[in-house]
Amino acid sequence: MDILESHVAFGGRQEVCRHASSSTGTDMTFSVYVPPHEEGVRLPVVWYLSGLTCSHANVTEKGEYRRACAELGLILVAPDTSPRGNDVPDDPQGSYDLGLGAGFYVDATRSPYAQHYRMWSYIADELPALIEREYPADMQRQSIMGHSMGGHGALTMALRMTGRFRAVSAFSPIVAPSQVPWGQKAFETYIGDDRELWRRHDAVALVEDGARMPDILIDQGDADSFLAEQLKPELFAAACQRAGQPLTLRIQPGYDHSYYFVSTFMADHLNWHADRLCDAP
Amino acid sequence: MDILESHVAFGGRQEVCRHASSSTGTDMTFSVYVPPHEEGVRLPVVWYLSGLTCSHANVTEKGEYRRACAELGLILVAPDTSPRGNDVPDDPQGSYDLGLGAGFYVDATRSPYAQHYRMWSYIADELPALIEREYPADMQRQSIMGHSMGGHGALTMALRMTGRFRAVSAFSPIVAPSQVPWGQKAFETYIGDDRELWRRHDAVALVEDGARMPDILIDQGDADSFLAEQLKPELFAAACQRAGQPLTLRIQPGYDHSYYFVSTFMADHLNWHADRLCDAP
Questions:
Q1: Residue A220 dihedral angles phi and psi, to the nearest 5°
Q2: Distance of CA A218 to the CA centre of its chain
Q3: B264 interaction partners in chain A (CB closer than 8 Å)
Q4: How far B222 CA lies from chain A's nearest CA (Å)?
Q5: Which residue from A9, A223, A254 is facing B264, i.e. has the nearest CB?
Q6: Interface contact B267, partner A, CB < 8 A
Q7: Which of A201, B4, B146, B196 shows its CA 20 to 30 Å from the CA of B44?
Q8: At residue A79, what are phi and psi to the nearest 5 degrees?
């Protein structure tokens, strides 16, 4: 692992790292913030999954998470959203919602994406092992959050990996990819047209099929230009209500889809995670 | 004035605006954050001047000032650091420390820069009039801060415009441009070799020549790669001590020159400004 950047920030350290990933067959870049802490202590870990077009850099620069992480004693890891590099196939049309920056947190099975687009395995298995090895991380205390496509990733990972994450939250997540254009395009391209497979990567379907978390927090701006066509939080609210899955869905008046929205509520989310991570198990 | 972007953030509104500047003879872009406030109230204004290579965007995206501005009721204005556009001459060598992104907060008098590089007039006169007209700004309560080259701008403007600014602070400022390579190169190029003129744009010289503020706050990281050659805060500390100018200079261990440093201490600075802006005059 190479440390590309290392900056003291809010008394802790913000790093940007690159490593050769066996999951994706490429170099992968991620960022990690380690708050100030006593030598020898191991700290809870919050995973932050980013949205379409983003890399680790967007939340690292614009997410405003370091103050709260420093106060609460949380490590925050921000992975990339797809494999990168000259050998990695991109969408031939060059669209922003497929290919580079748009891995959708699945393991692709279809050509030409299957070789490198293995973001589920990368984030579920490979990167946690690296974080545990390289950082003072207590892997018994993990939680996960994300924005937009990354909200989809956070919800599906938390709902499927029972017991892995003590908390999950999302900013303007894609909750029903099987029912919206972004998700349908990605799933058809990466994993084909088997709709039963899609259900394993769809938060609404996972809740319908019995997956559960103790509770879920979602913030959604009502001035988000993707709200009506791509995000549809009402589908998730209805599924959770039918299933008895606790959900706190907050519609935030005037807020859009940008990091001006995410940063506003970041400390709220981190406090909510800390409440579930920092008590005794 | 055109509003290029407008986002709700921390209950207020972050805008990015463009207008035709008579000072620079170009379009100029700036950002302004207006915190949540009651209708009809006018709010104190903090000016934030940015460093070399920056535009309004760096602090707007990475500065982490909105939470504190919202809590304290402060407007924050972030101008650009030079004129921009195809007609604007840049350094023929393309260096980062002269020309575009490097206006050094002076009115240039030398060819080919004199026509457009008039950042002192733009920030001292033209932009405040626009802000007063377009925003709920109380121009009787202004303060100024900046980073690096922008710290130089903030210190020199506060020291020269007696009574304009109730507070001034800086992150890793250029305090003695006449004595360091960045400043010497810029001053020779923009305003020629009359050293008496340089003293009007040099915080150390201004304090030596009798300019005063009630107090000054400076934060400086001790891992800043520009510290020894370009920043030299010890020169300002010595000048302030000789002159009886109150100065709080904090050397922050481990911090570098980046926005990871600026954002860490931004709320500190804004609280310090608010203490001087929000009481009765």
A1: -140, 125
A2: 13
A3: 8-11, 66
A4: 11
A5: A9
A6: yes
A7: B4
A8: -80, 170
- Cα(B122)–Cα(B106) distance, integer angstroms: 9
Tally the domains of chain A.
1
Q: What is the pLDDT along chain A (281 residues), one digit of tens a residue?
A: 999 999 999 999 999 999 999 999 999 999 999 999 999 999 999 999 999 999 999 999 999 999 999 999 999 999 999 999 999 999 999 999 999 999 999 999 999 999 999 999 999 999 999 999 999 999 999 999 999 999 999 999 999 999 999 999 999 999 999 999 999 999 999 999 999 999 999 999 999 999 999 999 999 999 999 999 999 999 999 999 999 999 999 999 999 999 999 999 999 999 999 999 986 54
How much is the pTM? 0.97
Three-class secondary structure assignment of chain B: CEEEEEEEECCEEEEEEEEECCCCCCEEEEEEEECCCCCCCCEEEEEEECCCCCCHHHHHHHCCCHHHHHHHCCEEEEECCCCCCCCCCCCCCCCCCCECCECCCCECCCCCCCCCCEHHHHHHHHHHHHHHHHCCEEEEEEEEEEECHHHHHHHHHHHHCCCCEEEEEEECCCCCHHHCHHHHHHHHHHHCCCHHHHHCCCHHHHHHCCCCCCCCEEEEECCCCCHHHHHCHHHHHHHHHHHCCCCEEEEECCCCCCHHHHHHHHHHHHHHHHHHHCCCC
Q: Do A256 and B64 touch (CB under 8 A)?
A: no
Interchain CB contact of A71 with B (< 8 Å): no
Tell me the nearest-neighbour CA distance from B233 into chain A, angstroms.
Answer: 20
Query: What is the ipTM for the molecules in this complex?
Result: 0.96
Which amino acid is located at B216 in the chain? I
Nearest chain B residue to A257 by CA: give it. B7
CATH number at B261 reads 3.40.50.1820
Beta partners for residue B168, in sequence order: B144
Structural domain span for residue A101: 2-277
**CA dist., res. B194 & res. B208, Å (int):** 18
Q: How far apart are CA B176 and CA B206, in angstroms?
A: 10
pLDDT number for residue B278: 85
Which chain A residue lies closest to B222 (C-alpha atoms)?
A8
Mean pLDDT by 10 residues, chain B (281 residues): 98 98 98 97 98 98 98 98 96 96 98 98 98 98 98 98 97 98 98 97 98 98 98 98 98 98 98 88 45
Phi and psi at residue B22, to the nearest 5°: -80, -25
CB under 8 Å, gap of 24 or more: what pairs does B114-121 form? B115/B25, B116/B24, B116/B25, B116/B26, B116/B83, B116/B87, B116/B88, B116/B89, B117/B24, B117/B82, B117/B83, B117/B190, B118/B23, B118/B24, B118/B83, B119/B23, B119/B24, B119/B81, B119/B82, B119/B83, B119/B153, B120/B157, B121/B23
Residue whose pair of structure tokens reads 């006018």 in the numeric block: B42
Q: Distance from A108 to chain B by nearest Cα, in Å? A: 34
